[in-house]
Amino acid sequence: MIGFFDSGIGGLSVxxxxxxxxxxxxxxxxGDTLRGAGSAGHPEEALGRIATEGLQTLRMFGAQEIVSASxxxxxxxxxxxxxxxxxxxxxxxxxxxxxxxxxxxxxxxATPATVITGIYERVLQPIVELEQVPISNLxxxxxxxxxxxxxxxxxxxxxxxxxxxxxxxxxxxCTHFPFVRDIMEEEIxxxxxxVEIMDPADAVxxxxxxxxxxAGSGSSYFYLxxxxxxxxxxxxxxxxxxxxxxxx
Length: 248
Known about the structure:
By secondary structure, this protein is α/β, with parallel strands linked by helices. Helix content is about 45%, strand content about 20%.
């Protein structure tokens, strides 16, 4: 059983990527919806506690191998919280996927919390020429389904100050962002021109598919710390096979 942990719906994009690479893997997902999208405002010490509790919950439900689909929790915090379980987080696979692009100009779009922690900067800076742009409120706008107009406005405001700059790759440094990838692509094209866009979820899913046990029935189990109609609708749309969402 592979466990997935995130603060809300974002990690569903990573689970969906795993389903493309390992459709028969059994998965259990825990979304800490009570403490909010992107864990915004939580200091690193609190993030460590949140990760510890999340991983403990997944272990309780039978996960022996875990994907941390949160872009804000540092690998060292996960190592402490894992209690011996094997963990794949977002930044390492992203760095390995960027190795063939060594020296290129990369723009990381992420939540302010992720930028502040520096977890992508530590692994990507030795490989590429990195610039980071924090996008405030985008993860929560996606989490609470505030609509395309709000999402577009948030992205546009974030990109305007760097309009005209040239990058080789734009990395989506938040697992919520792929849910609005079409809007992001349009705004990136408008402000930055044609550029390759990388979603680390695919690199994470590939590593999980090769390193974890993926033989099973393809079952998915979802648990939340606080009920969310939006989460339930996302699950129904993305995983139409029989699934169950429960609140702890």
